[in-house]
Write a structure and sequence with these properties.
single chain, alpha/beta, TIM Barrel, eight-stranded parallel barrel, two-stranded antiparallel ribbon, 37% helix, globular
Length: 334
């Protein structure tokens, strides 16, 4: 497993990270979740991503249990704050109150003294940005958080955060966690250029588009039993991708993967890692063998001719316009 710096920071993370959105605490039993984390560790994955809102906080608890016996210095734990964690008016968003209380809850559930990377899960238009950045900075100064980042922020929002942090003398964000894959490339036009100038790394989610880029969903066929498309939580997002024309195009990627000795999932993850702006691709799993398969994409190099072939096959299905970030066709929440 290869490691990369997060932007221009000193933090290194495994270029394939393990994430437990949907799976831990909801889609799979705890025993299977623990087995997936064990497989990730066996493959050299050291970076684990979660959020307080995943499975109504249960995902953090399961991850904390799975990592309990690991040498803390050898792993990187990333979590997020923004979405509701309870019924109260202040149990959501990026107010100082919610950030401080959520950080305390995450530390407790994860069973750790500090969070390596604490991320604003979305931008909060109802809270002054100064308040959010000050709360994050205070957590860093208290030693409860080592680095701070954001998730799914637009380029102008990231730029505003940098300007304020510089003016106020606060710790700068080092990462952004966006959706990014062969089909959804909206960060390429604005977010990535800004991030490269400012030294932010992309820790991307949905590299296999919720399983669509694995090729297991076939045009004209019902989704396989026990797949994410048949799960109540996952189907709300993946159903938008299950059109026959898109699934047909994905099947046309199979000869490309075969020629490289890769599975379609490995090709999709390797494609992500060709972008030098990417620090890591987050993979999820409901079975240990899925983790092991995806981990083999680490270190794979794709020639420019292969990248062009992929673009040609998927032409007409690639979303690049940053104004389409609310598209009901491909938008996925993570």
């Amino acid at each position: 497993m290869e490691h990369r710096h997060v932007g221009r920071s000193g933090l290194k993370i495994s270029e394939i990270a393990y994430g437990n959105w949907i799976t831990h605490g909801s889609q799979v039993e705890e025993e299977a979740a623990l087995a997936c984390v064990a497989a990730a560790l066996d493959e050299g994955i050291t970076t684990f991503d979660t959020a307080d809102a995943y499975a109504q906080t249960r995902a953090e608890t399961v991850l904390g249990k799975a990592l309990r016996d690991q040498r803390r210095e050898s792993i990187e734990i990333c979590t997020k704050v923004f979405w509701p964690t309870g019924p109260g008016a202040n149990e959501r968003g990026l107010s100082r109150k919610h950030i401080m209380e959520s950080a305390a809850g995450s530390l407790r559930r994860l069973g750790t003294d500090y969070i390596d990377l604490y991320q604003a899960h979305r931008y909060d238009h109802g809270t002054p940005l100064e308040e959010t950045l000050r709360a994050f900075d205070d957590l860093v100064r208290q030693g409860k958080v080592l680095y701070v980042g954001v998730s799914e922020w637009r380029a102008e929002e990231i730029a505003a955060a940098f300007k304020l942090a510089d003016e106020m003398g606060l710790d700068r964000i080092i990462s952004n966690q966006p959706q990014y894959n062969m089909l959804w490339r909206v960060i390429e036009s604005e977010v990535i250029p800004l991030s490269e100038r400012e030294g932010i790394g992309q820790i991307v989610f949905s590299p296999i588009a919720q399983g669509v880029l694995t090729g297991k969903y076939l045009p004209g066929s019902a989704p396989p039993a026990s797949s994410r498309a048949t799960d109540e939580a996952g189907s709300r997002f993946i159903s938008r991708l299950l059109t026959d024309d898109l699934l047909t195009a994905v099947q046309q990627l199979r000869p490309v993967a075969d020629q490289l000795g890769l599975t379609l999932a490995q090709l999709a993850v390797a494609w992500i890692l060709q972008n030098p702006a990417v620090s890591a691709a987050i993979v999820g799993a409901s079975r240990p063998e899925q983790v092991r398969e995806n981990a083999k994409a680490s270190g794979v190099r794709l020639d420019p001719a292969v990248l062009k072939q992929i673009d040609d096959i998927l032409a007409g299905h690639i979303v690049t316009d940053p104004e389409l970030t609310s598209s009901p066709r491909l938008r996925i929440s993570g």
